[in-house]
Amino acid sequence: MNREAPMSDLTYKSNGLTYLGATPFSGVAYSENEMGVREEETSYVDGLRCGLSREWNDDGTLVKEAMYSWDVFHGAARTWHDNGQLERDGEYEYGIALHEKLWDEQGNLLSDYVLSKDDGQYEFLEKLRQIYRGGKNVGDDESEPAQT
Asked: Which long-range contacts (C-beta less than 8 Å, at least 24 apart) are formed by 55-64?
C-alpha cells in the first residue's frame, strides 16, 4: 500500500466509500499545509479507512492517532490537548470502546470507562466478533462453513 494521494483528490460518495477517480481508494491519503508540511494522513483499503490515521498541529506535534478497520475505530486511538497533555486514550473493537480515559489540559482524569459484560454494547460486540471473525464475514471462506 505505497500509493499516496492528496485528500483533495479524493471523493466521498453516498455508498460510504472514498474514491480516487472512479476507483475505491487504497493507499495513504494526506493533506499538507501551505509550507508542504503534513497535517494529516489516513490509510485506506478499498475505499474504507483501514490502518493508521494521524493528525498534526501547525508546529508538527501529533494531536491525533487512531487505528481503523472497515471505517471504524479498531485498536488504539489517542488525542492530545494543544499543550501536549494526553486528552483521550482508548482501545476499540469494531467501533466499540473497550476502555477509554479522558483527561483535562492539566492532566486530571475526567473519566475512566471500561466496557462491562452488563453493558448493552458488550452483547453487540460479541455478535460483531462472530460475524467478522478473522477479518472476514463468516461464510466468505469456503473452508469455514457459515453458521446458521
From this structure: 57/82, 58/33
Q: pLDDT tens, 74-94? A: 999 999 999 999 999 999 999
Residue 24: which residues within 8 A CB-CB, separation 6 or more? 17, 18, 46, 47, 48
Q: Which of 101, 100, 61 is nearest to 82 (CA)?
A: 61
The label of the residue with cell 471500561 reads 114
Give 75's Cβ-side CA count (13 Å radius).
Answer: 12
CATH tag for 61-137 (out of 3.30.450.20, 2.60.40.420, 2.20.110.10, 3.30.565.10)? 2.20.110.10
- The pTM of the full predicted model, rounded to 2 decimals, is 0.81
